[in-house]
Structure to design on (301 residues):
């Protein structure tokens, strides 16, 4: 089941929060939705989930229009908002049972038990939601979004507040869900995008600036070659800027550096000779691909 967005625009007063964007999220794929704060990501998600009306354009979920068939769209969507709205005075199991009742789910107890196990809430199921850590409240939000087995999942910052172990578990769960469902999720964690996304959309100031696979986007911004180097000695930006054909120097850690060059020629031999001349012991040197973070910065700066 696909989500199709065509010419979507949303205006608040004199401000265009979303400005004529179009894209498609396909079944069996995970779409990473990226952008700086205030770029229009959450507004777009709220329109797809029928929480906000659009000013212009069309959005359809599985062929159902969000404006003309909102109830049909809602039946097919599981939604975890950025600010996870939970009933904090309820117990975890009680809350999920309540949500299952709203959806009219048959075999309610069985489905709630499945979601508790799948989202790692077994030990917390008899606790009051308000006493849980932020990470576990995120898990409860994920569980409620998936209770009715929706065909489309819209997840706004789903891994916010998770510790590294929880992060790995939820990433694995999202990747597993993406094999059979349409998943759209926003995040500011670039490693997460690189780990699980099939397609990336980047919006900036309401406008679509990228819509492609990660590898294609990396090639698109790679007008330069990146070379990482590590020296045994402490050096400086001023010294490394003297290497011929180096356009930018970035310090990664104490003695690790990233050198940018737009030269078509392989300059690793030049860097080696420069190190010898300046009595620097070169411990490591390798070419690098642009990271998703580099791509993001290039397209939104």
């Amino acid at each position: 089941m696909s989500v199709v967005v065509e010419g979507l625009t949303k205006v608040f007063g004199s401000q265009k929060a979303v400005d004529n964007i179009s894209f498609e999220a396909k079944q069996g794929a995970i779409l990473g939705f990226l952008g700086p704060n205030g770029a229009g990501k959450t507004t777009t998600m709220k329109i797809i989930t029928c929480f906000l009306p659009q000013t212009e354009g069309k959005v359809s979920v599985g062929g159902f229009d969000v404006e003309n068939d909102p109830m049909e769209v809602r039946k097919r969507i599981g939604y975890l908002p950025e600010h996870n709205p939970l009933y904090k005075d309820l117990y975890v199991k009680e809350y999920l049972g309540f949500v299952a009742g709203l959806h009219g789910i048959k075999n309610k107890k069985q489905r709630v038990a499945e979601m508790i196990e799948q989202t790692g809430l077994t030990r917390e199921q008899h606790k009051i939601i308000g006493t849980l850590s932020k990470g576990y409240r995120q898990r409860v939000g994920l569980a409620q979004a998936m209770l009715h087995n929706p065909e489309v999942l819209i997840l706004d910052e789903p891994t916010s507040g998770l510790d590294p172990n929880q992060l790995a578990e939820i990433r694995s769960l999202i990747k597993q869900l993406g094999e059979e469902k349409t998943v759209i999720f926003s995040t500011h964690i670039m490693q997460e995008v690189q780990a699980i996304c099939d397609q990336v959309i980047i919006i900036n100031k309401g406008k679509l600036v990228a819509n492609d696979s990660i590898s294609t986007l990396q090639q698109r911004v790679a007008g330069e070659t990146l070379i990482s180097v590590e020296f045994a000695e402490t050096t400086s930006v001023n010294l490394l800027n003297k290497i011929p054909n180096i356009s930018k120097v970035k310090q990664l850690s104490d003695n690790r550096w990233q050198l940018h060059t737009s030269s078509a020629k392989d300059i690793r031999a030049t860097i080696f000779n420069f190190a010898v001349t300046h009595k620097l012991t070169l411990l490591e040197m390798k070419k690098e691909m642009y990271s998703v973070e580099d791509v993001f910065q290039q397209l939104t700066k």
